[in-house]
Amino acid sequence: MALLKVTSPHATGPMSTQRLMQLVLLATIPGVLALTNYFGWGTLVNIIWACLVAVAAESLALMLRKRPISFYLNDCSALVTAVLIGIALPPYSPWWLIFVGVSFAILIAKHLYGGMGYNPFNPAMVGYVVLLISFPVEMTMWAAPKGAFVGSLPSIADALGALFMGRDSIAAFSIDGITMATPLDVLKQNNSLMVSDIWAQNAQFGHWAGIGWEWVNIAFLGGGLFLLWQRVFTWHAPISMLIALSVMSALFYDGGSSASGGSPLFHLLSGATMFGAFFIVTDPVTSAVSNKGRIIYGASIGILLYLIRVWGNYPDAIAFSVLLMNFSAPLLDYYTRPRTYGHQPAKKPKGGS
Amino acid sequence: MRKVWDIHGGVHPEENKQQSNQQAISAAGIPEVLVLPLSQHIGAPAEAIVNVGDKVLKGQCIATAKGFVSVPVHASSSGEVIAIEDRVIAHPSGMSAPCIVIKTDQQDQWIEHNGIEDYSSLEKKALLNLIREAGIAGMGGAGFPAAVKLGVRDDQPIDTLIINGTECEPYITADDMLMRERAEQIIEGTKILRHLINPSEATLIGVEDNKPEGIAALQKAAEGTGIEIVSFPTKYPSGGEKQLIQILTDKEVPAGGLPAQVGIVCQNIGSVVAIYRAIKFGEPLISRITTVTGYACEQQKNLEVLLGTPVNYLLQQCGFNPKNCSRLIMGGPMMGFTLENTDVPVVKTTNCILAPTAKEIAPPTPAQACIRCGLCAEACPASLLPQQLYWFARGKEYEKLEEHNLKDCIECGACSFVCPSNIPLVQYYRASKADIRQRDLDAKNAEHAKIRFEARQARIERLEAEKIAKREARKAAAQAKAASASDDKTAKVDAVQAAIERAKAKRAGNTDDKPTRESLEQALASVEKRLASAKEKLAQAQQQNSDKVAAFETGVEKTEAKYQQAKQTLEQFIAANTTKENHQSNTETSADNSNDAAQQAIARAQQKRANKVELSPREKAEQAISSLQKRIEKTQQKLDIAKAENSDKLAIFEDSVKGLQDKLLAAEQELAKLPAAEQTPETVASENPAAKTKTAKQPVAGDDVVQDVIAQAVAKRAAFSSMSDQERLQNAVDSITKRIEKAQDRLAKAQAEGSDNTEILAESIDKLTIKLSDAKAALTEKAQH
Ligand code: SF4
Ligand code: SF4
User: Fold this and answer.
1) Cβ of B731 under 8 Å from any chain A Cβ?
2) Is residue A153 within 8 Å of residue A161, measured between CB atoms?
3) Residue B345: C-alpha distances to residues B34, B90, B355, B450 (Å)
4) How confident is the model at residue B126 (pLDDT cuts 50, 70, 90)?
5) Mutate to test the pocket of ligand 2, among B246, B385, B425 (most ligand atoms within 8 A of CB)
């Protein structure tokens, strides 16, 4: 018997980082299915390609940094980044767009900062924003949802073709109207119609928000609740973000006038709201750590999200809001330290630094 | 049901208690050899009082407590001492320490011992002493001497006595079995403690709700005693002292403080039983219940183990299979430490031997990166941010660590337990704590050295500057004199200076006086106070497991010695003085025989008057000045005290000092005017007394008693004033030199002892040196004139 010398505690909990990441991947499934159902195979193709690129980029980075590759690949964090980017990018994006985004996320946003756990910014969102700024046209070509246009969704073969040869070379994409402004765009550009008129005049609006979008959001909400139940993260950041967003949209709903920013329900079920709330905002590495900090962090993202959606230059704003708050996370941590047992009252932080 | 509160964080590891709590407690038996470490507790190791070859009986004290925070060690069975040497002991570092090794004779023969029927008739001190002499140290894990914990100061009222039966660590069931099988002893012991502590509100026994049998047994035994059994939800680490206090009372022990500060005293259930046996039967602590568990053993059970029994002896009895064992742990899976050697003995704090298979406790996996998931912060019962601490610990940012209250980490391991990345967080904290302690120690030493060096430098510079100033003043004086011989201002200044010197010398003489009873009593009181505070500090350090314990211990011992010394001096003084006083009154009565009291009074009055009459204006002025100076000094002293105490009389004192100084100035000016009228003050001063003596002597012929007394006084006075200033100065110089020598002696001694008086002594030497140089300067000036 080799009597080992190990320090306490000897018992360990059931959770592992790898398992956490796998749960996150698992929880994206309903959302991805909903996306595929309404927008076709594009998202799935995005995700698969992104995962391949991510594993390659991660291996390369680990090799360059002389780290054990399989040990770190095992934590599945690269896959999570890839899946998140795959979901966030418009379906049927060209291969190089995804390649650039994922490589940038993994190599620059993650490993250049020291790898897993050290990155101050959410790699997926960094990759997304880089693409959005560099290739605005490709990044805003969202496919129209099934039911909003005549004709059927592109097939798998079409999707793959679009990935590698571009949409222009694929016949299925020549139909006019297969890409369409998202409901968020429509509402933002509107300045003459009542909200109810918009609903009547635009095919892409559904029950509460955009066709498809509402169900995609509900699916991501389901995935998020699953993760909450599994205690992968705490409720603080996502719920406070959703509440802040609802409050903001309620304040500026303006009775559905032409100046309305849209109803709370519309905002909650539009664009990347739920995806952002449960899969981006909850990224542990780049958010605040204390519970109080997370509430502020989430709520700030909710407010920023609304401001940028309604008055900013970009239709959806999860990425920008999250990155902005990534900046301030350390500061939040600094000022929201919990009161330690036996300290009355909490130690006041001294000065800046 | 009593209300209970929740603690922040906490975790729910698999309990694994059912393996070992199925069987009744059985005796482990007597091993061939017992290894009894001299240090089985927090605090100073005990001191062996047996020799190799001595025969010892069961329960015989073989090592006595050394110092305040220490407990004795007793032979746990009869036999022969075969060695007193370093053996590997139960310690996380696997270190060796002095142990007494006894070869047992299997007779298990008890030494004669007697219990006390009625403990309530005993004084608190006597009870505490019994507990201490029985060698009882906290049996819950920390091993803090029970008597120290129970010896709360009278000025700290205790409202709640808490008996800790939580046993929140997985696998361990020693306390559980104790409750089931010996509930009456627990209750009886608790009664003793209640008598000792006399809590004003409640006596509680806290038990986690996963021990229903234990709770039932306790409740039955406690019926009608007023002792409350409180159960609360199972959660690790509810059994931590601070956590249990929070659960039962919603109070938090202040950071760095003791439970007594919030009116609580805590004791472990095992210790309570030990105390009961010590008081009731006079049995010292020589055995304890230890859980042997884990699936690498065939049987998991609780054993009543003689202290000093080697672990392998226990493992053998339980069918230990080393091949299956992933690691051998002393203590529980959350806070226990691994053993590398199965020879280590069971000690007072050993509650569990855990031999898990790899399936139960997997070999450690490599740590992954921290993903800042915050699970650790959720789990931390102290509401710390473990991931931040980890970050800072890796970066060796000690200031940040302290700012984030690393000190308040109780090393419970909840954070590491939940960490998905398997980071051994607690290991980082332990290392950082050790580093910080070392750093603080170094910094303190460096700071001391620096202060000493600077003080010395300043001293040298000051003396140098004073020398130069004096030299220059002298030069200036000489020049002034040469410039105008008639201008004898300098002479006047010298005279004033001399007067000041005299006053100072006199005062110096006074302070050199023999100690008075009050001063001795004061000293005694202050030492007593220091002793109390030193003890408190020590207790705190021990509770926090600080490694300053040793330092505090020596401190306490030294202070105690000083205390004894001061007491002795006082007693001697009192004894000596009573005889002296008797003596004095004797002589006085004899004097009364010849002179009656009234006459004496008259004589004194006349003497005084005579003195006054005889004084020349100059002398009067000088006297006025010195008395003023004395008053200034006194006021200054008061002022200093006021300043130190931040008293609001500060302004008043300052005013009066100013007023007195003004008066002094005026008096000095007057004095300066005088010589001009009397022309040659020196000759007047030296001639006058002779004349006075003559005139005063005449009445002596009259043979009047009164006149006689007056005459004597006058003679004395004359003798004094005939002493030239120079002589007086010389006297002053001599006395100061003597005092400096004495002070230096004391300083050397203090330094050798490492006493904290060195600073004060060094300062007083400085002052004396300055005085000396002043006096010398005055003397040389006098000599020059
Ligand atoms: S539990 Fe582990 S991984 Fe999570 S924040 Fe704490 S240290 Fe980091
Ligand atoms: S070991 Fe320290 S930091 Fe970790 S949970 Fe316990 S008290 Fe908190």
Assistant:
1) no
2) no
3) 8, 7, 16, 46
4) confident
5) B425
Q: At what angle do helices A318-335 and A291-311 cross, to 10 degrees?
A: 150
Task: Compute the distance between CA of residue B725 and CA of residue B714 in angstroms, rounded to an integer.
Answer: 19
Residue-wise DSSP of B533-591: HHHHHHHHHHHTT-TTHHHHHHHHHHHHHHHHHHHHHHHHHHHHHHHHHHHHHHHHHHH
- Nearest-CA neighbor of B664 among B615, B611, B622, B618? B622
- ipTM of the complex, rounded to two decimals: 0.81
User: Which tokens hold the place of B547?
Assistant: 């490694």
Domain boundaries, chain B: 26-354, 382-487
Q: Which residues of A215-239 are buried (b: 16+ CB within 10 A; e: fewer)?
A: bbbbbbbbbbebbbeeebbbebbbb
What is the predicted pLDDT for the residue at B289? 92
Residue given tokens 């007193």 in the structure block: B84
> Looking at ligand 1, which residue's alpha carbon is closest to its atom 2?
B419
Determine the distance separating the centroid of ligand 1 and the alpha carbon of B334, expressed in angstroms: 17
**Gap between the Cα atoms of B411 and B49, Å rounded:** 36
Distance from CA of A279 to the nearest CA of B (A): 13
Of B37-46, B80-89, B676-685, the least confident = B676-685
Q: What is the 3-state secondary structure (H, E, C) of B587-637?
A: HHHHHHHHCCHHHHHHHHHHHHHHHHHHCCHHHHHHHHHHHHHHHHHHHHH
Fold exhibited by the domain B26-354 = Rossmann fold (3.40.50)
- Cα separation, B176 vs B334, in Å, equals 18
Question: What's the predicted TM-score (pTM) here?
Answer: 0.66
For the stretch A99-123, pLDDT in tens is: 999 999 999 888 888 888 788 888 9
In the three-class reduction of DSSP (H, G, I as helix; E, B as strand; rest coil), residue A202 is classed as: coil
pLDDT digits (tens, 9 = 90+) for B254-299: 888 888 889 999 999 999 999 999 998 999 999 999 999 999 888 8
> Quick one: pLDDT at residue A83?
93
Q: Is the peptide bond before B356 cis (omega within 30 degrees of 0)?
A: no
User: Which of A12, A110, A341, A350 to mutate to probe the B interface, most B CBs <10 Å?
Assistant: A341
Residue carrying structure tokens 């994922």? A102
Do the Cβ atoms of B374 and A294 come within 8 Å?
yes
Question: What is the CA(A292)–ligand 2 centre distance, in A?
Answer: 19
What residues contact B762, with CB distance under 8 A and at least 6 apart?
A: B455, B747
Take atom 6 of ligand 2 and give the residue whose Cα is closest.
B412
Would you call B382 and A117 a contact, using CB atoms and an 8 Å cutoff?
Answer: no
The pLDDT assigned to B685 comes to 42
pLDDT at B81 exceeding the cut of 80? yes
| Euclidean distance between CA atoms B347 and B287, whole angstroms | 9
The rounded distance, in Å, linking the Cα atoms of A347 and A330 is: 17
Band the pLDDT of A257: cuts 50, 70, 90: low
Contact between chains at B255 and A340 (C-beta distance less than 8 A): yes
pLDDT cut 90: percent of chain B above it? 21
Spell out which residues of chain B touch residue A116, defining contact as CB-CB under 8 Å: 368-369, 371
b/e B647-674 (16+ beta carbons within 10 angstroms → b): eeeeeebeebbeebeeebeebbeebbeb
| Cβ-defined contact of B421 to A17 (cutoff 8 Å) | yes
> Ligand 1 — pocket residues by CB below 6 A?
B 370-376, 386-387, 390, 418-421, 423, 425
* Cβ atoms within 10 Å of B86's Cβ, excluding its own: 12
Partner residue facing A347 (CB), from B242, B253, B405: B405
The ligand placed nearest to the CA atom of residue A341 is: 2
End-to-end alpha-carbon separation of chain B, Å? 95
